[in-house]
Amino acid sequence: MHKALDPGTEGKKLQSMGDSRSSPNLHAHHIRNKIVAAYTAGELTVASDKLVAITGLAGRMQALIQGEYLAGLWRNTLSSDLLWKVIGGKQANGLLSTRAAQFRAPSWSWAALDGHIMPGRPNTERILITIDEAVTDPVVPENPLGQLKSGRIRLRGVLLPGTVKPPDSSTLQPDKLHVSFAAGTETVDHWIFPDIQNEISDQSVFCLVVSTKNQYDGMLI
What we know:
Layout: H1 7-16, H2 24-39, H3 55-65, E1 69-70, E2 73-74, H4 78-81, E3 85-86, E4 98-99, E5 113-114, E6 117-118, E7 130-138, E8 148-156, E9 159-164, E10 177-183, E11 186-192, E12 204-211, E13 217-220
Antiparallel strand pairs: 1-2, 3-6, 4-5, 7-8, 9-10, 9-12, 10-11, 12-13
């Protein structure tokens, strides 16, 4: 049971999009992002139902987007879909974000966490990675939109080595880390948003650069 999302309201939005003539695919992705943000702002009575609870909405989205559904993300915008983040490093109830105790989605999906999610914005420009493989294995093969038992992804791209900077009074924010990346002969300072607060203990990190649309957008590896 979800306590925030109104399937009737959001479902009507999706249904009305069937008449959209202007970039219906992109519009569908933006509506999808609003749904994910609203959905993760609530609470589930049964945490393992994270993906199961939105099966109906995912089905309507699939008809509009006409792409393959992968654990809450979509293959035709998967590169930018991977750039989701946890808002404030917390769940909607104010508790810190956590990883699911039992598998329900691969780690590259927002559904693997309990946290308030800001989805990645649909983007096909300046993408710097190649997705060689992205697969999910549903519990019921005939229902790829439902519960999963495994998933995997294989990417190719550029890894930037980085060093986590010690926080000071101007950069001390619990949901962010200040990192200095080596980009060729230059050094680029950037904020990173860990999925889980205090999960990164090493000073040295690597970032897979996904897009340069907004300076550097990437994922920690």
